[in-house]
């Protein structure tokens, strides 16, 4: 009984922190957004959070889109990495495809932008490749 309650409390704590990180992606400060992206990268790479992300995937995708559009260098690179992890968490179903299709044009845009930093371009290339492999229904 108490173990289940403790586990439930830990899960709620993790979800609260994730919500906070997602809110911080919209911060005016680039440093705050980068810190939030790093925290999300760590969380998404260390634990399966598909249940939590399922209902928040579009909100997170929208925030990542803003980071890719308005951010520079490191922020764009982190956003690409978090997007890759989001696609991995969503899997090959319609949810993963929806996230991928909404951000694919932006990934291509950053990838082909010669003024973008090499790390941002590399991260977007990786995100494009991984998300395409995992979530794209269209074979082309």
CATH topology: Leucine-rich Repeat Variant
Distance between the termini: 51 Å
Helix content: over 70%
Mind telling me which CATH architecture this is? Alpha Horseshoe
Which structural class do the helices and strands define?
mainly alpha
CATH superfamily: Leucine-rich Repeat Variant
Subunit arrangement of the protein? single chain
Average the pLDDT over all residues and give the rounded result: 90
Shape: globular
- Figure out the total of helices: 7
Record field, number of beta strands? 0
Tell me the count of domains.
1
Given as residue ranges, the uncertain stretches (5+ residues, pLDDT < 50) are none
Order of helices and strands: HHHHHHH
Strand content: under 5%
The CATH class assignment is: Mainly Alpha
> Can you summarize the main beta sheet?
none
Radius of gyration, Cα only, in angstroms? 15 Å
């Amino acid at each position: 009984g108490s173990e289940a309650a403790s586990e439930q409390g830990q899960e709620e704590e993790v979800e609260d922190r994730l919500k906070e990180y997602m809110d911080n992606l919209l911060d005016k400060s680039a440093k705050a957004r980068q810190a939030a992206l790093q925290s999300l990268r760590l969380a998404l790479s260390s634990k399966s959070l598909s249940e939590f992300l399922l209902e928040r995937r579009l909100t997170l995708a929208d925030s990542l889109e803003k980071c890719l559009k308005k951010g520079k260098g490191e922020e764009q690179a982190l956003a690409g990495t978090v997007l890759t992890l989001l696609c991995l968490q969503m899997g090959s179903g319609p949810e993963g495809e929806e996230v991928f299709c909404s951000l694919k044009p932006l990934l291509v845009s950053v990838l082909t932008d010669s003024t973008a930093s090499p790390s941002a371009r590399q991260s977007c290339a990786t995100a494009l490749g991984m998300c395409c492999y995992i979530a794209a229904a269209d074979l082309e």
